[in-house]
Amino acid sequence: MRLWRGLSPPSTRTARHGLPCRHMKDVHDTLDLLDYRRRVLEFYSEVRAGGAGEPTWTAWRTARDRIFAHHPQSALDAAQRVSFRSLPYFDYDPAWRFEVEVEPVDTATEDIAHSDGREHTGMSRFGVVRFAANGQDLELALYWLEEYSGGVFLSFRDATNGTETYGGGRYLLDSAKGADLGNAGTKIVLDFNYAYHPSCFHNEVWSCPLAPPRDRLDVAVTAGERS
Question: CA–CA separation, 44 vs 214, rounded Å?
Fold first, then answer.
């Protein structure tokens, strides 16, 4: 859920690819981070077990609100957490859930721009997924994180960016950090109701990988977290 923080002193936190990764000050920070990651893994496990449908999605929303509001590793700072009530979303729409075949491509490592102007080079494109929405045939690329702990990563931009959602795009999958909606064989679940904003949307101290140019959709994805 959170990403790299910008340049900061060693005693403050940095993060990478969607969940926290701090320069720890003491053992308490380390254990807080461990607990945060465990909780995120748990509520995505419940999403996969619960399957499609609004009740599962509602439980996921509640879990995210709880961790944003109360956890010391929240993307929000202490002052923001005081006034936080809940994250806003588009209404649940089952039409934005897809089970799609992953088509292999020649692996290529790409530079991914960050919100603070840096680039991250540890992402390899390994497949594409194709689906249809709003009368259009769409395609997104899937990436594998070569650095850190590995995992599938999918971010995207769409026609809502800059108005109803963050201009740099939203995230859908980050399996290294628990954001994994499931797969069956070579088919993978893409449910855009679970799309979420990176941490830099909530607090500018974080630096986020932005959605790559090939993962920009011409349609408005009116599902998931909104501004």
Answer: 27
User: Tokens representing 111?
Assistant: 């530079």
pLDDT at 129: 97
Q: Residue 60 belongs to what H/E stretch?
A: helix 54-70
Amino acid at site 208: C
Instruction: Annotate 139-185 with three-state secondary structure.
Output: EEEEEEECCCCCCEEEEEECCCECCCECCCCEEEEEHHHCECCCEEC
**pLDDT of 121:** 66
- CA atoms of 91 and 104, how far apart (whole Å): 33
* CB-CB contact of 15 with 22 (8 Å): yes
Taking 3-state DSSP, the helix, strand and coil percentages for the chain, each rounded to the nearest 5, stand at 30, 35, 35
Give the Cα separation of 69 and 84 in Å (integer): 6
DSSP 7: S
* Neighbour tally for 215: CB within 10 Å: 21
Does the global pTM surpass 0.85? yes
> Which residues, including other chains, have CB under 8 Å from residue 24's CB and lie 6 or more apart?
30, 33
User: What SS3 class is residue 138?
Assistant: strand
Give the pair of three-digit tokens for residue 108.
């290529």
User: How far is it, in rounded angstroms, from Cα 70 to Cα 20?
Assistant: 15
Sheet containing 97-113: order of strands: 170-174, 152-156, 136-145, 119-133, 97-113, 187-191, 183-184
Q: What is the mean pLDDT of residues 159-187?
A: 93
Strand-pair partners of 183? 188
Out of 2-16, 70-84, 186-200, least confident range: 2-16
For residue 96, pLDDT beyond 90: yes
